[in-house]
Design brief:
Number of strands: 3
Largest sheet: 3 strands, antiparallel
Strand order of the largest sheet: 1-3-2
Number of domains: 2
Strand content: 5-15%
CATH architecture of the largest domain: Orthogonal Bundle
Shape: elongated
Protein name: GntR family transcriptional regulator
CATH superfamily of the largest domain: Winged helix-like DNA-binding domain superfamily/Winged helix DNA-binding domain
Radius of gyration: 19 Å
Organism: Thermophilibacter gallinarum
CATH class of the largest domain: Mainly Alpha
Keywords: DNA-binding, Transcription, Transcription regulation
InterPro entries: Tscrpt_reg_HTH_GntR, WH-like_DNA-bd_sf, WH_DNA-bd_sf
Helix content: 55-70%
Length: 122
């Protein structure tokens, strides 16, 4: 699992870590039961504070995506990929709805919106 941190991004580093681990779980890059690097090991490899990686892991654990077994490590929890995918699909639907609303406010027809969407898909 490769995590890429952008210091020029306006997003906090812990959110970047959280989002990339979520994505790896959804795509199957991280399988159920797979062990994640320790907080300290991940912090060292990313050259960030252990507090930052601890926050990312805490958020992932609160969402039920990972679980920590005291003295053994942190593992990908089961049955969560579908929940994440549903959440992401709702987000995309919301963005599409905003785009349609914006198009209609400037007078675009449904056919024009469909044509624009088809062009973007290419």
């Amino acid at each position: 699992m490769d995590i890429i941190i952008s210091t020029s991004s306006g997003r906090p580093i812990y959110e970047q870590i959280t989002d990339q681990i979520k994505s790896a779980i959804v795509t199957g890059q991280l399988a159920e039961g797979e062990q994640l690097p320790s907080i300290r090991a991940l912090a060292n490899s990313l050259r960030v504070s252990a507090i930052t990686t601890k926050r990312a892991y805490a958020d992932l654990e609160a969402a039920g995506l990972i679980e920590t077994v005291q003295g053994k490590g942190t593992y990908v929890a089961g049955e969560n990929a579908e929940l994440i995918r549903e959440e992401q699909m709702r987000e995309v639907e919301g963005l599409l709805a905003k785009a349609v609303e914006r198009g209609r406010t400037i007078g675009l027809t449904d056919d024009e919106l469909s044509e624009m969407f088809a062009l973007v898909l290419e």
